[in-house]
Amino acid sequence: MKKTSVLAIIVFSFLYHGCSVIEQATKVDYDETSSGLKYRKIKQGEKETPKKGDLITIHYIAKIEDGKVFDDTYKRESPLTFRLGRGHVIKGWEEGILLMSKGEKAEFVVPPELAYGEKGTDNVPPSSTVIFQIELIDIEKPEEPFKPDPEVFTSTPEGVKYTINERGKGPEIEKGMYVNVHYRGYFEDGEVFDDSYERDKPFKFLVGEGMVIKGWDIAFTKLRKGDKATLWVPYQLAYGKTGRGPIPPETNIMFDVNIIDVVKPKKPKPFVTEGKDTLETLSGIKYIIVEEGSDDIKPEENDVVVIHYTGYLQDGEIFDSSVKRNQPFKFVVGSHQVIPGWDKAIRLVGKGSKARFIIPPDQAYGDRQVGDIPPSSTLIFDVELIDINN
Predict the structure, then answer these.
(1) Is 309 tagged catalytic?
(2) Per the residue annotation, which of 31, 72, 195, 320 is the catalytic one?
(3) Backbone phi, then psi, for 150, in 5-degree steps?
(4) Which residues pair with 19 in a beta bridge?
(5) Annotation marks residue 358 as catalytic
């Protein structure tokens, strides 16, 4: 690498683990790669270094050259995880993170051709050089394929075969439980057709509710949390005589599955709103404060809110619930991550409060069908505002 000097004309401050770091310099030395990527270490890391195919977890702060921050995982309290070398991130990251080690903090100056190019993004102007301060939190090596002995498979009465390669110690899986699983699907000749590891995201489903192929609903009731197992599913209990996507008709398929978590769903209870005032905004959103929180602070633009919620259709049917999943939901206020009605209504309640939002179609999904939500639906949400992070 060659050395290049860049005159820093901006004094900037940023946060790492809650500690304010202020850097002020007249001259900053960078290493520069042959592609034009500039790089300097901020904090030394450990010996472990990443390779293509590794699952990488990072925190980062992203700026354009004038110092304006356009993204910050520290503020969201949500590090980014992705598979290195799969084209999931910009070219500058694919190259630069290979230069880092676990625990290291570094700054990259990424030219447009290695960042967002001539088009830019909503937050990055066209042909912009972008500056990233990156902390490499973790490196996880790819999961190796299971290699079970064909003689040790157990058959269910329905015809699914399974073998447990590594027995877990968690609860047994029953119908009606949520399962979070990493999996690799492949044909009998070993060719992979689907892989959650490549997407860097486990798959969650409700057992016995028809959310997956019949073979999975049958096989998973034979497993428990922590199990690493191999499944053989006959085509009649998979994708049948027609097949689907890369899976040909009448094809038996196999899966390596790693049961990460098993959760028995909580049954949401509708908030009691009798005797409570129903208020209405100019945009037509109605809301009822069911329980006042102990804190008067209300969310503002760009705050990260943590909530539990249950969504109902007008006939009382539940179409979604973080309570049922036992997993609170986070979003950034005003960032268009949620329906407009949520962005507006959440600002009306204080931290710790419970409220019911009644959101008309034009503030929800309009005339579109979304999952189990019919077109032009008024939606009802019981929401608990757990936390607000600035």
Answers:
(1) yes
(2) 320
(3) -60, -20
(4) 16
(5) no
